[in-house]
Amino acid sequence: MGEALQKIRSGLLPAHVQLVAVSKTRPVEQILALYQQGQKVFGENKVQELVPKYEALPRDIEWHLIGHLQTNKVKYIASFVHMVHSVDSLKLLQEIERQAKKNNRVISCLLQIHIAKEETKFGMDDNEMTQLLEETVVHPDNYRHVQIAGLMGMATNTGNESQVRNEFHHLKQLYDTVRKKYFSFQPHFKELSMGMSADYKIALEEGSTMVRIGSLLFGAR
Ligand SMILES: *Cc1c(COP(=O)(O)O)cnc(C)c1O
User: Fold this and answer.
1) On the CB side of 107, how many CA atoms lie within 13 Å of its CA?
2) CA of 189 to the centre of ligand 1 (A)
3) Among 47, 71, 154, 190, which residue's beta carbon has the most beta carbons within 10 A?
């Protein structure tokens, strides 16, 4: 496990690229082992798995929620979650705002964009994303406890490398457009979360700033 970590780290040369170790389905002992080698950022995709892990593990771990989040579950993670990668509706953003405010916190959020050809993947299309952003521009006071820090996307699960590359490329272009139009003087908008075990190298070439890697670190699930 440590070897994989070092290998990925040394390949993630650009200093601005963050490694999110995806620890879903892994026991706390394995997470702790990686933590003891210096990995402090972990991603989980389910609230009911994240909460007990948060409670059992060291408090300086940065927890990222990377999977689909139901509005009625935001309250269980709002006191500690560092970043939500999977904001896919205005309703969800508003609930995160409500719960973050209750906890007197600001929660970093990424807007999840649907870039894959597959029907099953969550995420907004360009239109839904624009509507959400316009709403936050018109009513900024209603969104003081969420900070939109960038975009996230998952490519199609395929061996077709050029298709994966095209999907990441599209997301990077969208990211550049959004940053220019909505966040030009806001340096916190800087994250492009794309790339998993199978495709993170392509994602890095296409401009990813956060890779979410599970099986390469922990072994096959
Ligand atoms: C599981 C998961 C990952 C990591 O997948 P691996 O193939 O194990 O690297 C990344 N992102 C999301 C949203 C996931 O659910």
Assistant:
1) 32
2) 23
3) 154
Task: Please give the average per-residue pLDDT across 96-106, as a whole number.
Answer: 98
C-alpha 70/C-alpha 42 separation (Å) is 20
pLDDT single digits (tens) 74-100: 999 999 999 999 999 999 999 999 999
Cα 195 to averaged position of ligand 1 atoms, centre (Å): 9
Rounded to an integer, the average pLDDT of 105-129 is 91
**Cβ–Cβ < 8 Å for 37, 16:** no
Tens of pLDDT, residue by residue over 44-59, are 999 999 999 999 999 9
**Ligand 1 site-directed mutation target among 22, 24, 216, most atoms within 8 Å of CB:** 22
Distance 213 CA to ligand 1 centre (A): 6
Minimum CA distance residue for ligand 1 atom 12: 66
